[in-house]
Predict the structure of Probable enoyl-CoA hydratase, mitochondrial.
Amino acid sequence: GSYEHILTSTPKPGVGLITLNRPKALNALCTPLFKELNEALSTYDNDQSIGAIIITGSEKAFAAGADIKEMAPKTFAAAYNENFIAPWSHLANTIRKPVIAAVSGYALGGGCELALMCDILYCTEKATFGQPEIKLGTIPGAGGSQRLTRAVGKSKAMELILTGKNFSGKEAGEWGVAAKVVEGGQEALLEEAFKTAETIAGYSRVAVVAGKEVVNKSQELSLKEGVEYERRLFHALFGSKDQKIGMTAFAEKKKPEWSHE
Ligand code: HXC
């Protein structure tokens, strides 16, 4: 598609790249940008040739937050009636293929929350994360209080959200927020994200979607229910062509040619 606030491309086979591109506002996530992001995510999610999606920003900013200038005049009634921020749930609630956040520069407020919503987070050492909403007289509104707390534990999340203090990409790695911390800049970061996305896109789409689904269930269910859920889906995958293809290829010492069915 052709977009105003984002760029889309397929830099590697099976990999859909979405670049937030509103440089004058450090990629502040205004409503029109989010509409485009959701459209691009759905397009890749529905495209059989795509196996993994990357969301990135620029060297300077992944995203400096929700758009403060758009939010400033809102009343309670307006926010409530239009269900402001509801479109932000599209990624977590609807997108089934894995989404990697590649974060360099600022990931503040809603930008941090968007990164936390992704399935895998990679960042540069010098990336700057934070939930500074408290400084604006408000609180995180796109899941930050829940996802950051699950990622770093209650005491640290409470400290971050109540002081509004930033944390670095290096700290994000140490605390388990980021799966990988890259030493260089945006280019080195994207290289690592491409590698992982290409690896994932090289597997059976059916198995990958199931793998994402079961890991996400761990965030919602008790351990016993989660293990049962996993077993149901594990059993179900014996009905996929790719389970036969994968296991037969192993036995025959061949490379599997996935049918994605
Ligand atoms: C709207 C923003 C913005 C934002 C930056 N800009 N962040 N506009 N919303 N979140 C705009 C600035 O107004 C400025 O526009 C331009 O981008 C460049 O920013 P500067 O401040 O001049 O850049 P710099 O001095 O380098 O400082 C970078 C910064 C600072 C430290 C990231 O911009 C900043 O503190 N931004 C706000 C961060 C924040 O509070 N985020 C949380 C938002 S609340 P002009 O026109 O002046 O050039 C939130 C709520 C989420 O996200 C809850 C629901 C999702």
User: Anything to note?
Assistant: The longest helix spans residues 186-201. Residues 61 and 105 are 4 Å apart (CA to CA). The first strand starts at residue 6 and ends at 12. The chain has a mean pLDDT of 97.
